[in-house]
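Fig. S4 source data, part A: sequence.
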Amino acid sequence: MNPFLKVPTRYWFISCMGVLWFAMGALDYVMISYKVPAYMQAMPEDLQYWFDQRPVWFTGVWAISVWSALLGSFLLLLRRRQALRLFVLALVGFIIAALWAYLSEAANMAHMQSTITHIFNGLIFFLGIFYIFLPAIHSDGRFALDGAGQSRVIGLIAIAPCALVRRSSAVCGC
């Protein structure tokens, strides 16, 4: 039995796009953490100062968020159940980091108040939610990340909007 035949092509496409997206986040983390001159010079000075003054715990939360999302996207390609936990961890880390960034002195910076920053953070949040519910969207409310290709029902996934109305693909648009 070939497990690749059971999974729609869109699942593989979306999973590969997730790897690319989260790899860009990991690259951003590495470039800022190692203070690569060419990368840092492209940022406004107040943002560079903010990154230099950020607390250690923020860097830790950011690292956990970025690396768990990247690892989760690789596990999604391998159809492993642990991907869900890693995506939840990444989303929680992002929410903590974003809340602190918006509530700290950085919230007064022009860069943090720009529309593009709000749109980008909203996109990150949306994609975090999307990749948590991706298995439910494509598998009729059943979690399809099993190495053996078997589906198992998970309560958290069953609340996904597409899973609730997934009797006809026309209803959901998936």
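Fig. S4 source data, part B ends here. Strands lie at 142-143, 152-153.
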